[in-house]
Specification:
By secondary structure, the chain is an alpha/beta fold. It folds into two domains: about 170 residues, Rossmann fold (3-Layer(aba) Sandwich), CATH 3.40.50; about 110 residues, GMP Synthetase, Chain A, domain 3, CATH 3.30.300. The protein has nine helices and ten strands. Strands 1, 2, 3, 4, 5, 6 and 7 form a seven-stranded mixed beta sheet that branches. Helix 6 packs antiparallel against helix 8. The longest helix is centred in the last third of the chain and has 18 residues. About 35% of the residues are buried.
């Protein structure tokens, strides 16, 4: 492979919330980097992951779901998603296998009409419908947007992912390797740890709370003998009543969030983890530029 020309490029994943962008990226990379949940607003920042094989390197940008903003955090997330549309070599637009194209998808079509970057439609969740339903979904999307390619996949069942990778590489040019071949993400460990804790909270808490939480890792330190990693993190919420729900009766909910998050963090750092969690209230932090920046959502970095 030395001296062999290789392809490389940047590919963004866009789509409505919950179409499976993070699940697809984790499946392609073969490792858990992006958090997944059935809730909207699971991905809040642009997450960069790297796929490398003999053909070359694909740098994936998993963006927040594109939908209309309701607060400053929503505006930030929308700008992150829109910004990536003009800085990549290829756009993967993830949709579900249906002929119904709702307001959310039409809003994305409107955004895509402003870019000259090729758009590949990825119809995800094909395992959830009968095969005969897929051609109708393909035709429905062909009618609303100019598409370079259409590839049906199941991220959950890892179906058709080889074809998807082949098609992506066919759109990339010869170029440099941006990362070492064993790199899978540019995200710092602290940030991934914070996101893994937030994922568990999203999955375990009631409907109205998760949108209003952020997680900050205050400390992450490996012990000198390498036998353990001490992690201290704070879950930020917007109301005192939410704090009580997050902590739970006699701390039961916080313990549950902590024990589930600890397992994933241990898999990432490959050693035992001692995880300490706290909960703080910061009223309306999603509408405060200063607090948003403190919790990792900095407008200047878009």
């Amino acid at each position: 492979m030395e001296g062999q020309t290789k392809k490389s490029g940047f590919v963004t994943l866009i789509g409505r919330p919950n179409v499976g962008k993070s699940t697809l990226m984790n499946a392609l990379i073969g490792q858990k980097i992006a958090i997944t949940s059935r809730r909207a607003q699971t991905t809040r920042n642009k997450i960069q992951t790297v796929y490398t094989d003999d053909r070359g390197q694909i740098v994936f940008l998993d963006t927040p779901g594109i939908n209309k903003a309701k607060n400053k955090l929503g505006e930030y997330m929308l700008k992150v998603a829109q910004h990536t549309l003009n800085e990549v070599d290829l756009i993967l637009w993830l949709v579900e296998p249906t002929t119904f194209i709702g307001a959310g998808e039409r809003y994305i079509v409107e955004q895509l009409s402003r870019t000259k970057i090729p758009v590949m439609l990825v119809i995800n969740k094909i395992d959830a419908v009968e095969e005969k339903e897929i051609p109708a979904a393909i035709n429905a999307y062909r009618d609303v947007c100019e598409l370079a390619e259409i590839v049906p996949v199941s991220a959950l069942r890892k179906k058709n992912l080889d074809e998807l990778l082949d098609t992506i590489f066919s759109y990339l040019s010869e170029g440099p390797m941006y990362y070492d071949e064993d790199t899978v993400t540019d995200q710092p460990m602290r940030q991934i740890a914070a996101e893994l804790i937030r994922e568990k909270a999203l999955r375990l808490l009631s409907q109205e709370i998760p949108h209003g939480i952020a997680v900050v890792v205050d400390q992450m330190q490996f012990r000198q003998d390498g036998t353990c990693c001490d992690v201290e993190a704070t879950i930020i919420c917007e109301r005192e009543s939410h704090k009580g729900i997050i902590i739970g009766k006699q701390g039961s909910m916080l313990k549950k969030i902590g024990s589930q998050a600890r397992r994933d963090i241990e898999a990432m750092v490959e050693t035992k983890v001692n995880l300490q969690l706290w909960v703080k209230v910061r009223k309306d932090w999603r509408d405060s530029d200063i607090l948003m920046k403190n919790y990792g959502y900095d407008k200047k970095e878009i």
